[in-house]
Design brief:
With about 250 residues, the protein is α/β, with parallel strands linked by helices. It is about 30% helix and about 20% strand. The chain has a 7-stranded parallel β-sheet with strand order 1-10-9-6-2-3-5, with helices on both faces.
Length: about 250
């Protein structure tokens, strides 16, 4: 794994976005198209800001996204579909395809629909983050490292829900949904390249556990240590507890 530490979240996002763009362009050059995964949440603000300003032929790009709350209307400020439409899809030229997770339909049927699609479209570049509880997508601890299902219905733990409230997406903690549809750990690991953007001191303990601890489903993002090509983009705040900052 490769770790890049920036002074600020803005610098982190610029470097992560440029790195992701280079990999997307490489896939298009070699394969004629690129399949990508986009994450949402506060950790991705700066990375997506850079990505939308990159010179990419988006008509050759198909996008999947990681997760969405179950039974949360798209009109909600916390909706990840709303997030991706406003912060990405409406700011770039039309994509070849955009596969958004619909949390307002039958969740098992939606998992099956998306699972079939992603299995037909191997992922070239995945943009992900790490949660305050170490989650990867909405795979909270103890995460299922074994399921072969590309998407699954998950229960959100208390720390995960507190993070979503703390970031200002919901008016009260009680408003945060308790279930979501999430891409599975194994499906994320099938991505050829992974860009993991993790700013903010709130994530420092999780970064320490997931990058320097043993691989464990109690720290779900620690599984990224096993991936052949994961690049971590941190800022000084999120990297503050790391012992080895030279990787």
């Amino acid at each position: 794994m490769k770790i890049t530490i920036s002074k600020t979240p803005a610098e982190l996002g610029e470097l992560a976005g440029k790195s992701a763009a280079a990999l997307i362009r490489k896939a298009i050059s070699e394969k004629g198209q690129a399949n990508i995964i986009l994450a949402t949440g506060a950790s991705q603000f700066e990375t997506l800001k850079q990505l939308i300003n990159e010179d990419i032929d988006w008509s050759k790009v198909s996008m999947f996204h990681l997760d969405e709350y179950i039974d949360l209307p798209e009109s909600s400020p916390a909706s990840f579909r709303k997030y991706l439409k406003e912060r990405f899809l409406e700011k770039v030229s039309p994509l070849k395809a955009a596969y958004l997770v619909n949390g307002e339909t039958n969740p098992e049927a939606e998992c099956a629909r998306l699972g079939d699609l992603i299995q037909k479209n191997p992922i070239d570049v995945a943009l992900v983050g790490i949660g305050e509880n170490g989650h990867l997508a909405f795979n909270d601890p103890p995460a299922d490292f074994d399921t072969e299902r590309p998407y699954l219905v998950v229960e959100l733990d208390a720390q995960c829900r507190q993070q979503q409230f703390g970031e200002g997406w919901f008016d009260t903690l009680e408003d945060v949904p308790k279930r979501a549809i999430s891409m599975s750990i194994k499906q994320i690991l099938k991505s050829e390249h992974i860009i993991c953007s993790v700013p903010d001191s709130r994530k420092a303990e999780a970064v320490k556990n997931c990058l320097e601890g043993e691989i464990s489903n109690l720290f779900p993002a620690s599984i990224l240590q096993s991936h052949a090509d994961t690049a971590f983009f941190l800022d000084e705040a999120s990297a503050q507890f790391l012992t080895d900052k030279s990787k």
